[in-house]
Amino acid sequence: MKRCLIYFITILFVSSIFLAGCSSSSSDSEKKVNKVELTIYSWRPEDKAAYEKFIDEFEKENRGVEVKFKPFKSTEYGTILTNALSSGKGPDIIQLRPYQGATTIADSGYLLPLDNVKGLTDIPKEYLDAAKGSDGKVYGVPLTLNSAVIFYNTQLFKENGLEPPKTWDQLLQVSKEFQSKDIVPIAQSGKASYLLSLTHSVIGATTYDGNQFVEEFLTGEVNLHDPRFVESIKRMKELEPFFPKDFVAIEDKDAQALFYTGKAAMYINGDYRLESFEQNNPDLPIDVLPSVANTEGGDTPSVTWVDGSYGVVKASKHQKEALKFIEFLASKKFGQMFSDELNRMSAIPGVTPKHLLVKKLTEMSEKSNTPYFMLVHLGDGSPTTKTTFENALQGMYIDKLTADDVIEETQKSLDKWFKKQ
Amino acid sequence: MNEQKKDVKYMPAIRKARYPRKHLVHLFLMPALFFYIVFQIYPILSAFLNSFFSFKGMHKDSFIGLENFVRLFTESPFKETFNNAFWHNIIFFIGTVLTKLIVAFILALIINSKIKGKEFFKTVLFVPKLLSVIVVGFLFSLILNPTYGALNTFLKIIGLESLAQPWLGDPDTALYTIILVNSWYGLGFAILIFLAGLQAIPEDIFEAAKMDGAKGLTMILKITIPMIMPAIMIETILTFIGSFETFELIFAMQGSSGGPYYSTDVLATYFYRLAFGTVDGGEAIGLGSALAVVLFLIIAAATAIILFFFKKREFEQ
């Protein structure tokens, strides 16, 4: 009898806690009955302040909709997103990784097609390709364009009487000059191997004739054993003496620091590093080069790709409002705000960047561009061919692989999934 | 006799009085049991289940039996990566257990002897364990940085510049460097376990051995070590489990690919890449689960073998 009484009291106690919890939440929800709350997941915590401004602007025009921007650490974003989507209790809007990253999520049936969203049709087709499913539908509104560039310190070049390199030979020549003066020619980190493929995209842009090679590759006319691609790997090896000592052991932030403290003359990475240079050393006199030509006067295409887009989660309870926000993201107004606040190139046509360097990047990209080959076309496979390539490059720099081994390993990974178009 | 009768007489009453209390204890265990089931049992079971399925992105696709396991051990590059990571786990275990057992044992012996400031040394040596592994990893990444790291700077100052290395950037030194950091981190705990073992040895055994003429090393080999065999067993098993589960330190110091060029890759970093690292373009949740199951089985089987080996030795002694 006593036992029953104890169980009864315990159950009563536990259920009262639950009931109390439920009742308070129900009264909360009653208060918010007229307010729709949208949650956005992103991998860019550094953009939080800017997003608060964008969101304020949206909320002004859309009373009754409250938007919450929830960014996560970039390296943990994939895991968090997977869990959120598979539990079905995720956010309403999510930032999508470009190309294969977006396709995978779209193919898993987690997203709403956005083909009919106002403003989306004005965005160039090649940018929309970064957010398509295998069914050809668009599942994301591209946000920003990235360019891989050679940043250079104009003051260091001037002080040492050197001209910015226009050709491959000139790049080697100025690197030798800087090295002889104890200045690190190119601040490169090799610890995170993706940085190596980013540098390769800039070096290789002209070596393998940019778009020409890419087209032939996609139609299956050539593979990675093509002499032009082999040459691009050999050039990467040729650059090794001009990278910092033990660069495979240093982090990108250390390489950045070498550049913005004036210890290194050049730094190859995405244009998005501009923001961190300006934060760390606003007086740093920098300029950019898109790539280096094979011969004097040759083409120097800008390596450009779409960096992420925003899609609507199919399981969202507020699809209508989420689509409204997507429409806002696809508007020129947002594109301009985005470019001005974050010093980035917007994917929305007609946006004029305020920052002079971003303006230059946009012009360079409009003049001649080539895709980031590894990301745009080799992002499939498990592990992805891109990852295999990057790690193989790292292997080359620690003398575990030769340039030919890098090609061999990458082609082997590619053969598993690649189908000519 | 009378007292016994009295006890029997009151037994039902005592039992009755204690009965609800006993069940109340069970009730208090329920929350812990709930969390144990949700966070331990359920993930293990779901990993087992997922390992028999193929995945399309994050979607469970179809039942494929043991195919994930077959791919893991026969298909390139999975089998090569597995063998490489497995071998690193073995090196990690041997390196850590040897460093920890030897150094911790010697330090425990010193602390256990009648030296001054015993408590101070005990605390100092235990301090690393109070830090998070990620913090330790980050700190050592700074210390070992080839450009401005404290270690290479120190070597330069004392005139040993030739010994300065890119400790984490050279595949010949990277894994051993991490093993040393890991051993340093776990040393304090090993010392505590050995100290508990040493303090449990009755003093008269040493005195009897002394009277029989035993000295120094003989005493350690013939008395101390056999007597603290349970402590050695516990430390070995814990180190084994820790070595095969090791992830955070390598992740913090070398990233999820166990760089450079997989030279510090272990099964847990490989698992992370397989299951989550390719979310952007993979179909590897099934494969990742298969690897998790293999990892579980390796740890369970090896722990059982180590236990059996030590129990037998204990029994023989």
UniProtKB/TrEMBL annotation, chain A:
GO terms for biological process: transmembrane transport. It comes from the Bacteria. Pfam families: SBP_bac_1. Gene3D superfamilies: Periplasmic binding protein-like II. Keywords: Signal, Transport. Residues 1-20 form the signal peptide. The keyword tRNA-binding does not apply. The keyword Calcium does not apply. InterPro entries: Bact_solute-bd_prot1, SBP, SBP_1_CS. Belongs to the bacterial solute-binding protein 1 family. This is Sugar ABC transporter substrate-binding protein.
